[in-house]
Amino acid sequence: MPTRQKFDNDLDELRLNILDLGKMVDQRIGLAIQSLINQDMELANTIVVGDLAVNDLQASIEEKCILLIATQQPFALDLRKLVAGFKISIYLERMGDLAVDLAKLTIRIGREQLIKPLVDIPRMSVLVQEMIDLGLKAYVQEDCKAAAEMSMMDDEIDKIYSHVFGELRVIMMADPQKVTQANYIIFACRFLERMGDYCTNIAEEIVYLVTGKRVDLNE
Length: 219
Fold this sequence. Notes:
The protein is an all-alpha fold.
């Protein structure tokens, strides 16, 4: 097989691995939120234990990127594809870690009666998962416009987080006994807000992949 064709095949395989990682993380975020809303301890424990699969796949992607850079010595667009792919996998793996953190909050809250309906957390989760889906499509299609749209979705996540923080602050001031659980809910929203930031980082890598320029989509 010609060297260029083999390299293209390796890039295609790398892209598929990143898509698999993204889908895995997306699913785990949804399940973590489900465990929190339903106070499902068994599901939460499954998410915590299953984190190794995410870590292993990300490590495999990292190894492939390093190997291709070392053996093929790519430049220009090819090098950007590898660098962007490597960094995207890191951001996805970090979101997987945050999904585990969400599941751990489920375990900490346990069966304790919730101090408020968790209506904002699912809204934030839906936006995060939509950003992941859009980001994966933009990555495959090398679509800068779609990547830029992700930053606007992140702004909406930030607004919800600020709203929930203010609401829970009032609850804590009114009833000190609710402080612990209120803090857990704030942590959950903070984890989702951080996921939105990681999705924006992914969008920035897509812009870099296509244009070779570093941009700050949080401006």
